[in-house]
C-alpha cells in the first residue's frame, strides 16, 4: 500500500512540473536574439511649396508598417546639391537638420538657413523603429513613399539601412529635389512683427464673450484678424465637456466650472506674407528678430504658419482664464503673469512629451523579467527531481 501511495505521489509531482513548465512557456515572452522583419513601410507627408528666400521647416510625416509597430521620423535634412562634371548631382557640406541639436553641430558657415535663387537642394528623411523585437530587412522590407514603390533596401538606390543585420534605422534619399533659377523672385513683403491689442480676457458666465482684439501699429496695415476663440480645457474629464466659443459664431457665455484657453488666427493682407521664423518647431526662431505681442506682452511659443505663409495661428499660449460669476472673485490674470504661467505650462508639456516620445522606457526591466522567467523554467526539472527523490 505504501509503495502504491509513493507511486501516485511521484506521478502527481511530475504532472505539476509539466503543467507549470507548459503554462510559463506559452506566455508572451520575447527572448533575446529573436526579431521580426517588417514586411512593408508606407511613408506619406505634407509637401511644402518652397520658393527662394524661404527657410526650411519641419514636415508633417505619417508612417505605417506591416506588421504594426512604431516607426517614426526622428529628423529630416535638406542639403544643397551641385552638378558634377560627369553630370551627376552631388551633395555639398551645406545642410539643414530638423533636429536642433544636430543643427548646432553644423559649422555656422555651412548651415542652410534659407533657400536661394540659382541653387538646388535635396530632401532626405530618416526613419527609426521604436518597438523592440522588430527590424528592417535589406531583402524583405519594402518601402513606399507617397504611393511610389521604392523597393527593398538591397535593391533600391533611394533606401539605405544603418547596418546589414538587425537594422533599426533607415534613410530615404531624395524625398524631393528643388531647383531654383536666377529669375525666380518674390514681391511679397515679409511680416516680422505682429502686435495685437485690446484682447478681452474678462470672461463672465452671465454675459456672452466679447471679442475685441485688433491689430495696432504697423500690423494694422499688414494683417487682419480672421478669428478669435476661447476653448474650454477638458483634459482628464470623464466624460469631457468640450466648449469652443468663436468670434465667427453666435455670441454666447462660457459654461460654469471650467478654464478657457485663448487662440487667435491672423491672415496677411495682399502683398504680405509672414516670416518663416515665426514657426521654428512651433516657436519663434531664437535671434531672428521676429516678435509676437498681445496686450503688451511678448510670446514665443505655440505659433504655426500655413505653407503659403499667409495664415498665422497662435493657440493656448496664455494662462487659462476661469470665467467669473459676476463678482470680483476670479479676475483673469493679464500681462506678465500670463506669460510666466504660459512658459511654465510649455516647459511641463515638453517634459511630458519627451517621456511619451521615448517608447524604449522600461527596456531594462522587461529584459530582467525575461531572464527571471528563463531561470525559473530551468529550475523546474531540478525541483521536480528533488521532490521525486524525497518521496522515493
Task: Describe this structure as you would to a colleague.
- The chain has 392 residues and is α+β, with helices and mostly antiparallel strands.
- 21% of the residues lie in helices and 31% in strands.
- It has helices at 2-25, 100-104, 219-222, 336-356, 363-390; strands at 36-37, 40-45, 61-66, 71-83, 89-97, 120-129, 134-135, 142-145, 148-151, 159-161, 169-179, 189-191, 193-197, 214-215, 223-232, 244-246, 260-268, 272-274, 291-294, 297-299, 303-305, 311-315.
- The longest helix has 28 residues, at 363-390.
- The two termini are 14 Å apart.
- Residues 26-32, 327-335 and 346-362 have low confidence and may be disordered.
In short:
With 392 residues, the chain is an alpha+beta fold. 21% of the residues lie in helices and 31% in strands. The strands form six sheets. The protein has a five-stranded antiparallel beta sheet with strand order 5-4-6-11-10. A five-stranded antiparallel beta sheet has the order 16-15-17-22-21.
Amino acid at each position: 500500500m505504501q509503495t502504491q501511495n509513493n507511486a501516485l505521489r511521484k506521478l502527481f509531482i511530475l504532472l505539476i512540473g509539466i503543467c507549470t513548465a507548459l503554462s510559463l512557456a506559452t506566455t508572451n515572452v520575447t527572448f533575446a536574439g529573436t526579431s521580426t522583419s517588417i514586411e512593408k513601410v508606407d511613408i506619406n507627408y505634407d509637401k511644402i511649396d518652397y520658393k527662394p528666400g524661404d527657410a526650411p521647416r519641419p514636415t508633417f510625416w505619417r508612417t505605417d508598417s506591416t506588421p504594426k509597430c512604431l516607426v517614426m521620423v526622428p529628423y529630416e535634412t535638406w542639403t544643397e546639391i551641385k552638378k558634377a562634371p560627369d553630370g551627376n548631382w552631388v551633395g555639398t557640406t551645406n545642410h539643414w537638420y530638423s533636429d536642433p541639436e544636430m543643427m548646432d553641430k553644423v559649422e555656422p558657415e555651412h548651415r542652410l538657413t534659407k533657400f536661394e535663387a540659382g541653387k538646388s537642394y535635396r530632401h532626405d528623411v530618416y526613419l527609426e523603429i521604436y518597438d523592440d523585437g522588430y527590424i528592417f530587412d535589406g531583402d524583405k522590407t519594402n518601402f513606399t513613399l507617397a504611393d511610389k514603390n521604392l523597393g527593398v533596401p538591397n535593391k533600391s538606390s533611394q533606401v539605405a539601412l544603418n547596418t546589414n543585420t538587425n537594422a533599426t534605422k533607415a534613410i530615404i534619399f531624395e524625398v524631393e529635389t528643388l531647383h531654383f533659377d536666377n529669375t525666380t523672385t518674390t514681391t511679397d513683403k515679409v511680416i516680422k512683427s505682429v502686435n495685437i491689442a485690446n484682447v478681452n480676457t474678462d470672461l463672465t458666465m452671465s454675459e456672452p464673450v466679447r471679442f475685441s482684439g485688433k491689430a495696432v501699429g504697423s500690423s494694422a496695415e499688414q494683417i487682419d484678424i480672421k478669428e478669435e476663440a476661447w476653448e474650454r480645457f477638458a483634459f482628464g474629464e470623464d466624460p469631457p465637456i468640450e466648449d469652443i466659443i468663436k468670434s465667427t459664431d453666435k455670441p454666447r457665455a462660457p459654461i460654469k466650472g471650467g478654464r478657457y484657453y485663448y487662440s487667435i488666427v491672423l491672415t496677411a493682407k495682399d502683398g504680405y506674407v509672414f516670416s518663416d521664423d515665426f514657426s521654428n518647431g512651433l516657436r519663434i526662431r531664437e535671434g531672428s528678430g521676429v516678435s509676437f505681442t498681445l496686450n503688451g506682452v511678448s510670446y514665443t511659443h505655440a505659433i504655426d504658419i500655413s505653407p503659403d505663409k499667409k495664415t498665422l495661428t497662435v493657440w493656448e499660449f496664455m494662462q487659462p482664464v476661469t470665467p467669473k460669476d459676476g463678482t470680483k472673485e476670479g479676475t483673469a490674470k493679464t500681462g506678465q503673469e500670463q506669460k510666466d504661467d504660459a512658459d511654465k505650462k510649455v516647459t511641463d508639456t515638453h517634459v511630458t512629451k519627451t517621456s511619451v516620445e521615448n517608447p524604449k522606457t522600461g527596456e531594462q526591466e522587461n529584459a530582467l523579467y525575461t531572464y527571471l522567467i528563463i531561470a525559473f523554467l530551468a529550475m523546474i526539472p531540478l525541483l521536480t527531481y528533488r521532490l521525486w527523490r524525497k518521496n522515493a
